[in-house]
Amino acid sequence: MWLQPRTVVNPSGRCHAFLAVHPPTVMSDFTSSYDESARLFRAYVGPSKAAVIPQPATHQEIEAAERALGARLPGSFQRFQLEFGDCQNSPIHIFTVRSTDPRALNIVAANLAERTVPGARLPAHLIAFSDDGSGDLFCFDTRAFSGTEAPVVVWDHELNEDQTPELVAADFADWLRSEIQERVTEDREFQHQWRHNVIGSFAWDLLRRFRTRGRSGSG
User: Fold this and answer.
1) What CA–CA distance (Å, rounded) separates 129 from 136?
2) Are 62 and 97 within 8 A, CB to CB?
3) What is the pLDDT of residue 211?
4) Cα–Cα distance measured from residue 154 to residue 129, given in angstroms and rounded to the nearest whole number
5) Domain with 86 in it: what CATH number?
6) What is the DSSP code (8-state) at residue 164?
7) How many domains does the chain have?
8) Number of C-alpha atoms within 13 angstroms, CB side, residue 49?
């Protein structure tokens, strides 16, 4: 919710009041940053990677999620939802504004649950949109909006509620690009190690056969 100043006239005269209104979700202040991140995402989760099935969200679903969370969602994340929404089978878990199974991937359900867990409860101004697989959460810091974007921080589930979350990206597009690049690097290292092991195993097998033949011939 935003608080928008409105001028209200009543019998006692003119006064100013702040009325709670829902912010518009118009995508306007975007640069090529999101386009590049989206291109990398499409390439990374393409047919050769996994059977990812995008289920784009609607503006109405975004607005409903914002109302339920009590906060606006960054523009780049909104655009991702409109383009991809619920990406089933995606190797990168990104919460969606859509109703989904499991519900843990729904951004509203995930955040409301984290706000009530025993221990370090997630503050309402931090909106979790992904996890790192070990319990820590990537969140938008909605108290630090700059234009349509909010920085990405990490909420450590092992620390207390007084923690200062670590800043990891300027916005969602930067975070997504960084995640993909890191995973691509890991994939390449894995493939390199796999090839090294396969070639090494093949070479050792040839050497073993050569030695076996040599011993047979000398006998």
Assistant:
1) 11
2) yes
3) 59
4) 11
5) 3.40.1580.10
6) -
7) 1
8) 19
Question: Would you say residue 107 has pLDDT above 60?
Answer: yes
Q: What is the pLDDT of residue 184?
A: 86
User: Helix or strand or coil: residue 13?
Assistant: strand
Q: Are strands 126-131 and 2-10 parallel, antiparallel or unpaired?
A: unpaired
115-152 pLDDT, tens digit per residue, is 999 888 999 999 999 999 899 999 999 999 999 999 99
Structural domain harbouring 61: 22-192
Task: Retrieve residue 135's tokens.
Answer: 């319990």
Which among 107, 103, 123 has a CA at the least distance from the CA of 63?
107
Give the three-state DSSP class for 96.
strand
Q: Is residue 3 part of a domain?
A: no
Q: What is the DSSP string of 17-65?
A: EEEEEPPP----S--HHHHHHHHHHHHHTSTTT---B-B---HHHHHHH
Backbone angles phi, psi at 137, to 5 degrees: -120, 135
Strand, helix or coil for residue 130? strand
